[in-house]
Amino acid sequence: MSALRICMLLHKSVVYDSRVRREARTLTEAGHRVTVVELDRGARGSLDGFARVSASPPEGVCRALPFHAYRGAFLAGFVARVVQARPDVVHAHDAAMLVPGLLAARFTGARLVYDSHELATGVPYREGGWARFVSAVERLAVPRCAAVITVSDGIAERLQELYGLRRRPTVVRNVCALAPAAPTGELRARLGIDGAPLVLHQGAAAPDRGCEVLIRAMESVPGAHLVFLGDEGAPGFTAQLRVLAHGGRLDGRVHFHPGVPLDRLLAFTAEADVGVSLLQDTCENHRLALPNKVFEYVAAGVPVVASDLPELRRLVDRYGIGRCTEAADPGAAAAALRSALADRRDAALASAARELSWEHERERLLALYARLGANRSRCSRSNIRYSDSDARITE
Questions:
Q1: Where are the beta strands (DSSP E) in the chain?
Q2: Which tens digits make up the pLDDT trace of 215-240?
Q3: Domain range holding 320?
Q4: Structural domain tally of the chain?
Q5: Which of 25, 308, 351, 384 might form a disulfide with 48, Cβ 3.0–4.6 angstroms?
């Protein structure tokens, strides 16, 4: 395999993005030279073996420029950093990085890889003009990519259909790369509970994730406790959940705990008896999603209660890791929780954890980059020029 210089583009800090860190570390360990260009003024030096570079405009520039001018400075910052790095591959994470990725690839002659963490045209927070802009950007850029990566089979099929791709996008799921950890009891001690059944919602509490349904369901799961483990998502939403818990007389059984560092996460996760992911059927992206938290539950040996949506149902049924339920129905969710608490399915979870591991999943990413490296070697030997789409070679 030919070693490649890779620039990954990210519209936030890589420190808190487990997917980008997994991929960058894996490609570095495989011998590639990886630089993450990110929107974090503190980005410098290295992390997990890969280099970090900030594309954020100086703070004074941010304060002085109007919004649209700032977006131009933001775009120029990303392109300039990539041009300086002279990569072979520009790896754009999510739709926000497609425009800078496409421009940077054009200026440097690099190949463009699009890593779609969600179905960008199918999320509820993109509406009106913004939704049309994202759709236009994908229509322009995606067919010109050397490769497309995404997180589930359903999203891969949808992207191929939307943009007429000859090659189906490579699926690299958000399986957990963290080492399993034994429960320490720290979470239960902080919550003030001992051996009571514990239901866990991992990740930020936010609208359309079934948080309200979950609280209402707990009224019919006697003696069990619920904890939301993660920093606040939408402003004020946690306060709304507290009011709902109080109204249901669940003050002592519904808890809110801030997020914990990644290296301690699975030790906290393993203290739960059930892990929940109740994405609601409010958009196409949710119907095709495979949330990170589900793979983290499996890695920690915790059975899952998940929404009865196509991709989640396929995963849960294939591996026998828990139960699916109607995410809008508190009664159905309560029944699923009671059933999961009564039957942990430890053997199925152990088997699933072995298969749904980054050691297996990473091979898909490495195979894709081996193909890109091999094509680059053939191109340099024969003076052949690449076309923009499908990784085809043309004379």
A1: 5-10, 33-38, 46-47, 50-54, 89-93, 111-116, 147-150, 170-171, 198-202, 225-229, 254-257, 274-277, 304-307, 322-325, 385-386, 393-394
A2: 999 999 999 999 999 988 778 899 99
A3: 186-355
A4: 2
A5: 25
